[in-house]
């Protein structure tokens, strides 16, 4: 073999990915038959690679750090102290006939979980499950004045074997406690709370339909109810949970993809703020912006930050971009947890899962709008999607940015990564695969 | 989305332990037997792989399901769905339901010997056939139905009936007793009837409770067309009945639902021991159930079956109905007997039995092969009455 041939061979070897892609693309342009063959081949390759493993590699998963309770929090509550007051038949609410009138968060189940905290009574009080009823509080309650409030969003799924499961509840508990620390609210034992929650779910389990695509939305909330106007830590608080049966989160628009308004004049979070905590105060200011987007015929808001117009979040979800990077390889990128981003559990699950797959590069790094425009022009932008508990992944097909409409080819990909991610996660959530992330509560 | 009825985990357990293959199912009955209420016999267990492990009482949680529907077919379908799909090994369920006016016959009964089917249709009273054995009952919104679900090995009819009698006493101080036929009686009159379905791995026992049913409609509905019926189907045993409201004016179905439900929740799972509030607090409580396809995939198919003619009428065991027929003549009339043989609800043979002879002469009529009902029967009689007696004599003389 001559040196020239050797050099050529080396070139070919180094660029084999590009070559394969080029050939595949050419196949695409040819007849239908070869197109199908190419698809089939890619599917086979894809399904073999993206096999769901029951174990999660140790290096890709780590339990969240245990919360250090403040020393004057006092006594912690235990699930063994739980007392239950069951709803009487007259207090039960009728179940609706179909999903059309369900919407999101309009209907609630028959029971709720309540745990009071009173520093003057030693700390956390005994947890109780009661029929769903109104809360009574003093008009000076801190939550009503200074938004001393934090909440969580998680779901219970009825698995294919009829058992009810929740997804990585320890992550939600950790996130809740971190937010509590920031708001001067008492921290609590996440494990005990999850047990109380399991009891609540078993009582209201008939609110989850017996189909294999139904879920129940869980909303734990922690509020400061101290009846004094001082801007200080709450001496009294209430940790409660309500459950809501959900149909599909978004009204089905065009094929389920959403359109976004990207207006840099609106800022959702800033360095040193609480953009990384799930507090109610982050959401009230977004309502008017959402209204503006709707008025322009757009479905969600794409939150930008800084002079570079960094993409931070989509509506109430984290954002992911799948593209071809400068080295010519496929890459999945999401903004890092710099303080502006809510550490989503779906986000974390996607990162761990895709890193374990090892099929493409996975990065946590900043994305800017100019970058998006450039990638779009070069045809290197493949998919853009949001990720959250409510709908797992939400593909984006259009962004309205500085008066211009950018069309994103998310839905035009042959075997979209976001679809694969959705399938894998839902398979875990509905118990089709046995996985440590999905906890059976029955 | 294919939504076949799933095997529940306890069925899977049985299948796997007996080395059977796990496949998607559409109906689950293993050896389901309908037990007639009068017999106190132990049903033979056709196939018994390994007995499931004994679950201690403390691990069993109870729920009371209240159906939102008052349509008898929907409620029967719901009962069937739970029986086929639910896992009761750690979760016992009492289903409470009430229907709009209807007559419900047992699985092996003949509706025509129990009621006047044509008149029911006229008066808008639904006729339904349930899956369990036993006799015919009249339901309306003043009657509460209770279905006790449990795994097969925990079937205990006495326990269930005692829950009802205790509830009646606790709420209204009504003294109710259980007689040898497993009916609940108050002062010697029946206020409840019982039937059961025993299968693998689940079973259910259901009973009615007459709170404030319309006794007049009840009597009228369960009256059959006068005729001679030769039938091997299960016959109902008529008994004098009473409404609870006649015993205590404040009884009503809503309160009865609550009373029976609470009694069920506060009693231990397999022993008749009252655990009071502490026991009740450990249970899963009351739940409203909406029996639609959205909540219970596959229920529409079950309902379609229950409401089909093939099930309600078509499942009637073969029988013959004979009715006297007077034919007028010039000098004297003749007494003939119309005989109709009905199979699978259709009139197979229609004939006239001549006087002084055993012979049955077939009648040619377009009604042959058509569904049987009282209206059709009387229609044939009406048509034959127009025949002149002398013509009949002539025909007879010719044939003899």
TrEMBL record, chain A:
Which cofactors? Answer: pyridoxal 5'-phosphate
Record-level GO cellular component terms: mitochondrion
Regarding protein family, the annotation reads: Belongs to the class-IV pyridoxal-phosphate-dependent aminotransferase family.
Q: Which Pfam families match?
A: Aminotran_4 (PF01063)
Going by the entry's taxonomy, the superkingdom of the source organism is recorded as Eukaryota
- Molecular functions (GO terms): L-isoleucine-2-oxoglutarate transaminase activity; L-leucine-2-oxoglutarate transaminase activity; L-valine-2-oxoglutarate transaminase activity
Note the InterPro entries from the entry: Aminotrans_IV, Aminotrans_IV_CS, Aminotransferase-like, B_amino_transII, BCAT-like_C, BCAT-like_N, BCAT_family
Tell me the CDD domains matching this sequence: BCAT_beta_family
- EC class of the enzyme, as a word: transferase
The name of this protein is Branched-chain-amino-acid aminotransferase
Provide the reaction this enzyme catalyses.
L-leucine + 2-oxoglutarate = 4-methyl-2-oxopentanoate + L-glutamate; L-valine + 2-oxoglutarate = 3-methyl-2-oxobutanoate + L-glutamate; L-isoleucine + 2-oxoglutarate = (S)-3-methyl-2-oxopentanoate + L-glutamate
Residues found modified as N6-(pyridoxal phosphate)lysine: 278
Kindly state which keywords UniProt assigns to this record, in alphabetical order: Amino-acid biosynthesis, Aminotransferase, Branched-chain amino acid biosynthesis, Pyridoxal phosphate, Transferase
Sorted alphabetically, which NCBIfam families does this protein's record hold? ilvE_II (TIGR01123), PRK13357.1 (NF009897)
Q: Give the enzyme's EC designation.
A: 2.6.1.42
Q: Which spans are transmembrane here? A: none
Q: What is one Gene Ontology biological process annotated in the Swiss-Prot or TrEMBL record?
A: L-leucine biosynthetic process
UniProtKB/TrEMBL annotation, chain B:
- InterPro entries for this protein: aa-tRNA-synth_II/BPL/LPL, BPL_LPL_catalytic, LipoylTrfase_LipoateP_Ligase
Give the domain of life. Eukaryota
GO BP terms: protein lipoylation
Pathway, according to UniProt? Protein modification; protein lipoylation via exogenous pathway; protein N(6)-(lipoyl)lysine from lipoate: step 2/2
Alphabetized SUPFAM superfamilies for the sequence: Class II aaRS and biotin synthetases
Q: Name one GO molecular function term.
A: lipoyltransferase activity
Q: Where is the BPL/LPL catalytic domain?
A: 88-264
Biased composition annotated in UniProt, kind: Polar residues: 18-31
Disordered as annotated region, ranges: 18-55
PROSITE patterns in UniProt? BPL_LPL_CATALYTIC (PS51733)
Which Pfam family would be a valid example here?
LplA-B_cat
Query: What are the annotated GO cellular component locations?
Result: mitochondrion
Family, per entry: Belongs to the LplA family.
Q: Tell me the protein's name.
A: Uncharacterized protein, isoform A
Gene behind the chain: Dana\GF12181
């Amino acid at each position: 073999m001559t040196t020239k041939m050797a050099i050529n061979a080396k070139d070919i070897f180094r660029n084999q990915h590009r070559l394969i892609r080029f050939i595949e693309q050419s196949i695409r342009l040819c007849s239908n038959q070869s197109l199908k063959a190419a698809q089939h081949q890619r599917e086979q390759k894809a399904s073999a690679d993206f096999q769901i493993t029951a174990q999660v590699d140790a290096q890709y998963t780590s339990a969240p750090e245990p919360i250090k309770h403040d020393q004057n929090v006092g006594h912690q509550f235990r699930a063994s102290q739980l007392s239950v007051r069951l709803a009487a038949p007259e207090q039960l609410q009728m179940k609706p006939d179909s999903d059309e009138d369900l919407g999101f968060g309009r209907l609630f189940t028959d029971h709720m979980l309540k745990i009071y905290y009173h520093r003057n009574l030693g700390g956390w009080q005994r947890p109780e499950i009661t029929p769903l009823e109104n809360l009574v509080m003093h008009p000076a309650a801190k939550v009503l004045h200074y938004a001393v409030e934090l909440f969580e969003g998680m779901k219970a799924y009825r698995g294919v074997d009829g058992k009810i499961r929740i997804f990585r509840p320890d992550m939600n508990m950790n996130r809740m406690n971190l937010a509590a620390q920031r708001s001067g609210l008492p921290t609590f034992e996440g494990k005990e709370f999850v047990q109380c929650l399991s009891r609540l779910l078993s009582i209201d389990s008939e609110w989850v339909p017996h189909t294999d695509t139904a879920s129940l939305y869980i909303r734990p909330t922690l509020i400061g109810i101290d009846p004094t106007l001082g801007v200080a830590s709450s001496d009294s608080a209430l940790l409660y949970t309500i459950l809501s049966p959900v149909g599909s989160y978004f009204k089905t628009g065009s094929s389920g993809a959403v359109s976004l308004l990207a207006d840099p004049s609106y800022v959702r979070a800033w360095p040193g703020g609480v953009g990384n905590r799930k507090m109610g105060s982050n959401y009230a200011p977004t309502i008017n912006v959402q209204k503006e987007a709707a008025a322009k015929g757009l479905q969600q808001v794409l939150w930008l930050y800084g002079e570079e117009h960094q993409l931070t979040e989509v509506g109430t979800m984290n954002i992911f971009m799948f593209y071809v990077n400068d080295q010519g390889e496929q890459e999945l990128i999401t903004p890092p947890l710099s303080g502006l981003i809510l550490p989503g559990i779906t986000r974390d699950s996607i990162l761990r899962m895709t890193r374990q797959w090892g099929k493409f590069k996975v990065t946590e790094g900043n994305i800017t709008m100019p970058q998006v425009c450039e990638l779009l022009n070069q045809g290197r932008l493949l998919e853009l999607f949001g990720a959250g508990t409510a709908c797992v992944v939400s593909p984006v097909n259009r962004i309205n940015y500085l008066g211009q409409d950018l069309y994103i080819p998310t839905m035009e990909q042959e075997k979209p990564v976001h679809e694969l991610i959705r399938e894998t996660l839902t398979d875990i959530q509905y118990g089709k695969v046995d996985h440590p992330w999905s906890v059976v509560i029955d | 989305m294919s939504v076949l009825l799933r095997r529940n985990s306890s069925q899977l357990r049985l299948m796997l332990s007996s080395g059977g293959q796990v496949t998607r199912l559409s109906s689950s009955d293993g050896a389901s037997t309908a037990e007639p209420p009068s017999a106190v016999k132990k049903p033979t267990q056709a196939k018994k792989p390994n007995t499931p492990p004994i679950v201690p009482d403390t691990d069993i949680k109870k729920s009371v399901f209240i159906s939102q529907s008052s349509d008898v077919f929907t409620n029967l379908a719901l009962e069937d769905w739970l029986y086929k799909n639910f896992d009761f090994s750690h979760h016992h369920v009492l289903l409470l339901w009430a229907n709009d006016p209807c007559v419900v016959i047992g699985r092996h009964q003949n509706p025509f010997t129990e009621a006047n089917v044509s008149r029911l249709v006229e008066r808008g009273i639904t006729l339904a056939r349930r899956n369990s054995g036993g006799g015919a009952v009249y339901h309306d919104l003043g009657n509460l139905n209770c279905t006790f679900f449990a795994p097969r090995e925990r079937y205990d009819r006495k326990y269930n009936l005692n829950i009802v009698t205790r509830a009646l006493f606790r709420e209204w101080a009504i003294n109710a007793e259980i007689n040898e036929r497993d009916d609940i009686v108050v002062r010697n009159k029946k206020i409840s009837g019982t039937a059961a379905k025993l299968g693998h791995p689940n079973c259910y026992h259901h009973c009615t409770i007459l709170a404030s049913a319309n006794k007049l409609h009840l009597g009228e509905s369960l009256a059959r067309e006068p005729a001679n019926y030769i039938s091997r189907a299960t016959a109902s045993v008529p008994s004098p009945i009473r409404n609870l409201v006649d015993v205590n004016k404040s009884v009503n179905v809503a309160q009865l639902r609550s009373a029976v439900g609470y009694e069920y929740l506060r009693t231990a799972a397999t022993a008749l021991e009252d655990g009071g509030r502490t026991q009740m607090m450990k249970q899963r409580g009351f739940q409203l159930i909406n029996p639609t396809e959205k909540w219970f995939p596959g229920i529409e198919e079950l309902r379609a079956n229950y409401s089909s003619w093939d099930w309600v009428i078509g499942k009637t065991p073969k029988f013959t109905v004979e009715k006297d027929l007077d034919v007028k003549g010039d000098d004297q009339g003749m007494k003939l007997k119309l005989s109709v043989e009905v199979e699978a609800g259709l009139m197979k043979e229609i004939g006239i039995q001549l006087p002084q002879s055993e012979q049955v002469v077939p009648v040619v009529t377009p009604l042959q092969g058509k569904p049987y009902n009282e209206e059709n029967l009387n229609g044939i009689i009406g048509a034959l009455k127009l025949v002149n007696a002398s013509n009949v004599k002539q025909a007879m003389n010719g044939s003899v």
